[in-house]
Design goal:
Length: about 350
């Protein structure tokens, strides 16, 4: 069993029939947060209370639908255009099934199905889809495509993944950690791998939730310099630590959560041989965990390859990867509900 001491002291009051690890009482600024009509291209644009509100709504929907068996047609009569330039398992399935479960109609569109950027400008596509749907989610190669969509769309736009950010993944990661540890503030997350879009989203979010971030990337694979500077400002603002190194064991030292991702993203296949060489020594193993906190856990956004993390860690009780994958559904549902309705959670507020 992992230590729950940290979680216990995060709790303000014990509520009857509700786990003390996950909830707190009282009303805060979270009650007044309203995100209707907003777009989510990056969590850089969302404040601390806004991110917490999204996680609270997501956990509430999960509890009411999965555990209480309620049917909540919150998006009945609404539709979403799902644009996919890149293949996907979790993003497609979580969005498509989640929107349908809430009573809405999802429309899956690949680059072979629509004219995005080919025969029709992104501007025209945004205007057309705005007249036909209530929400647009786009999983694209270039972040600039999302910015163009948002500029000319009259409905909210969600980043389903771009070369710069992957915000919906990070919402699922932090919901998973909140469920497991009971609260987020004071946790240390260690990223060991590529300085990619997922790491960028961690860097724009962790400090706002009181989470310390330790990052190890090989030389030449560091995160974007501008994002690093913004993350340093956020860490100073929220009183958290941001530590960057090229030594994986140094990054893992004392950490509660070890995280990695693919070393070869879609579109980088020609770089595979060189990347595998450059990332030598970055595989997460039980030896990596030996220098982490006794309660350490493991996250990976999937799909996973063995060079990134060995089977002993990946399939161990410390691995939260399949709960993390499931939470992609609840967090995208929470996000879509928050952007399209004024939904108010019914369960007690989460403890952060």
């Amino acid at each position: 069993m992992f230590s729950v001491k940290k979680s216990f002291f995060c709790v303000l009051k014990i509520l009857p029939n509700i786990s003390v690890r996950n909830f707190c009482t009282g009303h805060t600024a979270l009650d007044k947060v309203n995100l209707m009509g907003r777009s989510l291209l990056t969590l850089r644009d969302f404040g601390s209370d806004e991110i917490k509100r999204l996680l609270w709504i997501s956990r509430d929907l999960k509890h009411r639908i999965k555990h209480e068996g309620q049917y909540l047609p919150l998006l009945q009569g609404k539709s979403i255009a799902m644009i996919f330039e890149k293949r996907s398992t979790r993003t497609r399935m979580s969005t498509e099934t989640g929107f349908a479960l809430l009573g809405g109609h999802p429309c899956f569109l690949t680059s072979q199905d629509i004219h995005l950027g080919t025969n029709e400008s992104t501007t025209d596509t945004a205007r057309v889809l705005s007249g036909l749907t209530d929400l647009i989610l786009a999983r694209v190669y270039s972040h600039s495509t999302l910015e163009e969509l948002q500029k000319d769309s009259s409905v909210p736009v969600i980043n389903g993944l771009s070369d710069l950010y992957h915000p919906i993944q990070i919402l699922a990661d932090f919901l998973t950690l909140q469920e497991h540890y009971g609260c987020l503030s004071g946790l240390t997350v260690s990223w060991i791998g590529d300085g990619n879009n997922v790491l960028h989203s961690f860097m724009m979010t962790a400090a706002k939730l009181g989470v310390h971030l330790r990052v190890a990337t090989p030389k030449g694979y560091e995160p974007d310099g501008g994002i690093v500077q913004e993350a340093k400002i956020l860490s100073k603002q929220f009183g958290t630590q941001l530590f960057l190194t090229s030594n994986p064991m140094e990054a893992a030292h004392g950490s509660n959560v070890l995280v990695t991702d693919t070393w070869v993203s879609m579109g980088q296949e020609e770089e595979k041989v060189q990347r595998l060489k450059d990332f030598h020594g970055y595989q997460i193993t039980m030896q990596t965990g030996a220098v982490a906190s006794p309660d350490w856990t493991f996250l990976h956004c999937l799909p996973r390859k063995q060079e990134e993390v060995d089977d002993q860690v990946f399939y161990s009780p410390r691995s939260l990867v399949f709960l993390e994958a499931e939470n992609r559904k609840w967090t995208i549902m929470g996000l879509m509900v928050a952007l399209l309705t004024d939904y108010k959670p019914k369960m007690p507020m989460l403890k952060f």
